[in-house]
Specification:
seven-stranded mixed sheet; about 35% strand; Mago nashi protein; about 375 residues; 17 strands; mainly beta; disordered N terminus; about 15% helix
Length: about 375
């Protein structure tokens, strides 16, 4: 049950001042204020944390996605999902995050043990706009809870021996805080195994997909709380604007993988559409009228295109060399040519592969709705 709302500090100041005495605007925070401290996790602060409403989704921070689980880099989640559905269970002294991934049936549970102390950070992000803030400065805030973490499923290693977790609650407002002043959360898993960050919205806010990492269109994200600046102070419960919109399909895409004997696959974008032509032959090269060649035309939904682009970014595809070759004969040949929203790649190889190649093949299969591409 959500606890009763706690009185804000303005109300407490008014009570303390007594009848007939005005409380000055902005009394809860000072201009150019900056505060950083570790304090006892009081009952009042714990009640505010318990009143926060976590959204039903989570993502891995964009800066963390560019890892490869196969090629030995520091991806520490035992799966390929970067987006999750979320349910939160609050238990005495613990918070339990149950996450279901968007790739296959990947699931995991993270159990955070709440600490006895809380890290408090607050800063006035726009001290030069003093005249535009009649009620005083609006502060960007973080509450940080660092404790032991236990993980299951795809998070077994990320939350394994020696790992810690820091739950960061992001907010805005002056000194008069309650749960609705917080608009996003992030959960940093860190320790000897490596680190990764999950994040999501609080209290109905819409957190931009590129909030914790680089935006895919190259724009610089506004790090100030929404609504702050020349147009006045941030408003309570104001949604953070979504900076990310789904990308259109590529301008060009030609993919191939196969060999002299064995299965062969091609994927070709039909120019000017969101549709691809998928051809496969289980025994030999794909040629017009070759026995065994199968062809399908597949319309790709906008969200699947966006997920595919995320996977290509995660695989590091845009940095691949033009050619990868080994001395071995026959075997597997492959090629990729894509032009897409400011990015271009033409690469290929024979029996040699770049880092991230397995993740790339999985991404193509997902784009095709489960069709083979191996």
């Amino acid at each position: 049950m959500r606890p009763a709302a706690l009185p804000g500090c303005a109300a407490l100041l008014a009570l303390a001042a007594g009848p007939g005495l005005a409380v000055p605007a902005g009394a809860c925070a000072d201009s150019v204020q900056r505060h950083a401290a570790a304090e006892r996790l009081s009952q009042r602060r714990m009640e505010i944390v318990e009143a926060m409403r976590f959204g039903d989704s989570a993502m891995i921070a964009g800066a963390e996605i560019n890892r490869d689980p196969v090629e030995g880099r520091d991806w520490i989640i035992d799966g390929n999902s970067t987006r999750f559905s979320l349910s939160l269970d609050r238990r005495p002294g613990r918070m339990v995050f149950t996450l279901n991934g968007d790739w296959g049936h990947e699931t995991g549970v993270l159990t955070l043990t709440l600490p006895k102390k809380i890290g408090i950070f607050a800063v006035d992000t726009a001290p030069d706009e003093e005249g535009d803030r009649p009620t005083g400065p609006m502060l960007y805030r973080q509450w940080r809870l660092t404790g032991a973490i236990v993980g299951t499923g795809i998070f077994r290693r990320a939350a394994g021996m020696g790992q810690k977790a820091t739950l960061i609650l992001h907010g805005r407002g002056n000194g008069c805080l309650d749960a609705d002043n917080f608009y996003a959360w992030s959960l940093l898993l860190h320790g000897p195994v490596g680190k990764t960050t999950l994040y999501g919205p609080l209290n109905g806010s819409q957190v931009a997909s590129c909030w914790m990492g680089p935006c895919p269109d190259g724009r610089v994200k506004d790090r100030r709380p929404s609504g702050q600046g020349k147009r006045g102070m941030a408003r309570r419960n104001e949604a953070v604007p979504a900076l990310r919109t789904p990308l259109p399909p590529p301008a060009k895409m030609e993919l191939y993988i196969g060999g002299f004997s064995g299965p062969n696959y091609t994927v070709s974008l039909i120019a000017g559409t969101d549709t691809v032509r998928y051809r496969s032959n289980p025994q030999t090269f794909i040629r017009p009228h070759a026995p065994g060649t199968r062809e399908r035309v597949l319309a790709i939904p906008p969200r699947r295109w966006q997920v595919f682009r995320d996977r290509l970014d995660a695989a590091g595809l845009w940095a691949w060399r033009k050619e990868y070759r080994s001395a071995a004969l026959d075997g597997t040949q492959w090629s990729v040519a894509i032009v897409w929203h400011g990015r271009k790649i033409e690469a290929g190889g024979s029996n040699d592969y770049p880092a991230g190649f397995r993740l790339y093949k999985q991404a193509v299969r997902e784009l095709l709705g489960g069709e083979e591409f191996e």
